[in-house]
């Protein structure tokens, strides 16, 4: 009798995990893709996030906070991946051509790609919380009040962090551009 109860509980757990996956996989993938800029990396992050969730102790799947947990896990995993690649400056040719949609010309496309790569590397050097706030605001388009609520901090803290981060990135971008000339 006890074995049947265990199997039933495990079955319920798998069904809950499957439901969470179906509901949130697209959002997790988009968040990871926005951070990494690479579909293969985003797929890897998607799998990693859900494997971590599946490996949690049985009975601890909290579906009420799943959306927030999964989203933050995707963003943090994306930044972890970028930090791990921080020293790697070369990009494979098939990844460099990755963004869909045609840009006006090769020089514009090249510069836009370089700036995207620079921004990803720059974001990877930020403290995790700062990078997360920046990503939520400028890559995900969330309002400051929503970011504050999600992270459990004040709107003022969000605004100050964003201002300082923008200023830092603008200064670094200026130096990077001057160094290219």
Please give a structural write-up.
The structure is a single chain. The protein has 181 residues and is an all-alpha fold. It folds into 2 domains: 1-84, Rna Polymerase Sigma Factor, Chain: A, CATH 1.10.1740; 126-181, Arc Repressor Mutant, subunit A. The chain is built from 8 helices and no strands. It has helices spanning 2-36, 39-55, 66-84, 93-96, 106-125, 128-139, 144-151, 155-180. Helix 1 (2-36) packs antiparallel against helix 2, helix 6 packs across helix 8 and helix 7 packs across helix 8 (155-180). The termini are far apart. The model is unreliable at 3-10 and 89-99 (pLDDT under 50).
Helices and strands, with pairings:
Blueprint lengths: L1 H35 L2 H17 L10 H19 L8 H4 L9 H20 L2 H12 L4 H8 L3 H26 L1
Helix pairs in contact: 1-2, 1-3, 2-3, 3-5, 3-6, 5-8, 6-8, 7-8
Range of helix content = over 70%
What class, by secondary structure content?
A: mainly alpha
Rg, please? 19 Å
Average pLDDT across residues? 77
Sheet with most strands: none
Please report which band the strand proportion falls in: under 5%, 5-15%, 15-25%, 25-35%, 35-45% or over 45%. Answer: under 5%
What's the CATH architecture of the largest domain? Orthogonal Bundle
CATH topology of the largest domain: Rna Polymerase Sigma Factor, Chain: A
Which consecutive residue ranges, at least 5 long each, have pLDDT under 50? 3-10, 89-99
| Count of strand segments | 0
DSSP helix count? 8
Any idea what the shape is? globular
Q: What is the number of independent domains?
A: 2
Instruction: Report the span from N to C terminus.
Output: 75 Å
CATH top level class name of the largest domain: Mainly Alpha
Helix-strand string: HHHHHHHH
